[in-house]
Amino acid sequence: QIQGMPYGNCLLVSDGPIHNSTGIPFFYVTPKDKTVADLLKNPVASLTLPEVDGNFCRKNVVDPEDPRCTRLTLTGQMVTVAPEEVEFAKQAMFSRHPVIRKWPRNYEWFFLKMNIEHIWLQNWYGEVSTITVEE
């Protein structure tokens, strides 16, 4: 019913093993998930991350999804992780989300990553700053 329409989903994400963040979002996914099936057809995606430990939100005990809290939005192309990068992606995901080890093996899990093209930092009710990918 919503074919061709964008929609959101929650996926586990990691940008590297603990103490080795890269800034590149990695995902462990199954083609049985409608989101992943759509991404394999049209790989354009966005990812929004709330500032959970930001100064304002933490100091004032405010929900990280409150509009006064900073959020980062990344947009780009979702691509299958190349064979030479799979071990790193596995360490990245499994170190931060150990529950993945217990997921059913018959779901054809594989790794995606986002090749970031645009970065927006939104702070306090809509002020948006553009950040270059190089930064």
From TrEMBL:
Pfam families linked to this entry: CREG_beta-barrel
Alphabetized UniProt keyword annotations: Glycoprotein, Secreted, Signal
Domain CREG-like beta-barrel: residue ranges: 2-135
Compartment list: Secreted
Coiled coil: none
UniProt key word Glycoprotein: yes
SUPFAM superfamilies to which the protein is assigned, alphabetical: FMN-binding split barrel
InterPro entries: CREG_beta-barrel, Split_barrel_FMN-bd
Main location group: secreted
One GO cellular component term noted in the UniProt record for this chain: extracellular space
The UniProt record lists the keyword tRNA-binding: no
PANTHER family tied to this protein: CREG1 PROTEIN, PROTEIN CREG2
Family: Belongs to the CREG family.
Record protein name field: CREG2 protein
Originating organism: Nothoprocta pentlandii
